[in-house]
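Shape is hard to put into words, and the shape of a protein is harder than most. The fold becomes a row of whole numbers, each drawn from a learned catalogue of backbone shapes. The outcome of that step, for a single protein, is printed below.
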Amino acid sequence: MSAYSPSGKEQTVAEILRKEMSALGYNVKRDEVGNIIGEIGEGSLAILLCGHMDTVPGYIPVRMADGRLYGRGAVDAKGPLAALVLAAAQAAKEASGMKITVAAVVEEERKSKGIKHLIAQNLKVDYAIFGEPSGVENITIGYKGSLHLKFTLKTGTGHSAAPWLYDNAAEKAYELWLEIKRNHSKFVRPESQYNSVTLCLTRLSSGSRGASIVPSKCQMQVDMRIPPGLASTQLLEETEKVLACFKTANPKVDISFLVEDSNEPFEVEKHSPLVRAISYSIRKVRNKQPTLLRKTGTGDMNILGHTMRIPVVTYGPGNSHLDHTPKEHIMIKDYLDSIEIYKTALLRLNELHKNN
């Protein structure tokens, strides 16, 4: 059974999940934005397991070969989501005292519409695990935050045969970009990309096709990644200072900008019961000491962890370097082991809670 589900088109996979989770004993509902929410078990310990149903665009034929399952979403993140669903159902049968909520959310690959709606519903849980490909023997305990900005620059225009007479919106946008980079370099730590502010110019658009005209409008999009210890508001304030100086130096250039999206950095305490429970489980199932990862990307874990101030990790089978690629696949053994690891971690967390 397969269902292609790029962001915004999760309806088919949502219905498959609803039926499968109901058959496993979950109390299942579909919320207003299309998330599938399943609850199983009862008790004083409340745990959220969250994965996303959507994928980036780009269909990949589903097939199995050489112990691998190929298909869009095999790694990011239907494989981890399916493992969460099965593990929670098994754990609920083996132990009491836990109320487990499994949330399959929409539009994680866009602007995290699903998890933001879930949080807004006054969600109350003690711990959360996000199903994303960390690698079956690794636990992601930290992600950087992000700040996505869009700048629009407007200037006068004229014939490109006399460029000295006019400000060029495209050139001015690039000059602004260089000033932002220069200023923000004070937040760079050469020994660690994770602990540094990093910037990427993701889009620069201007000009008229086939015309000898000095560009009079340019749009520029910048992706900033924020390490723990800094907030998006701090980086925004720094950017506004640069922009103010640039406007003073370029009075004929009209400049505006907007914040398209922002997320705060988040890192869980590595000695928390949640990290200890998953570490124990990996050692038991794989007989390996887990590696704790701090990643330079950003995930739904940031949003929930920063908002609710609870221990949150990201864990799941699969190689994250295969995310969004045409060769996306997951190892079947890793997928099966991850089900046992999720289940054992839930049972261990329940024991720690009872003994606390």
User: Anything to note?
Assistant: Helices lie at 11-23, 78-94, 113-120, 169-184, 232-249, 273-286, 300-308, 332-355. The chain has a mean pLDDT of 95. DSSP finds eight helices and 16 strands in the chain.
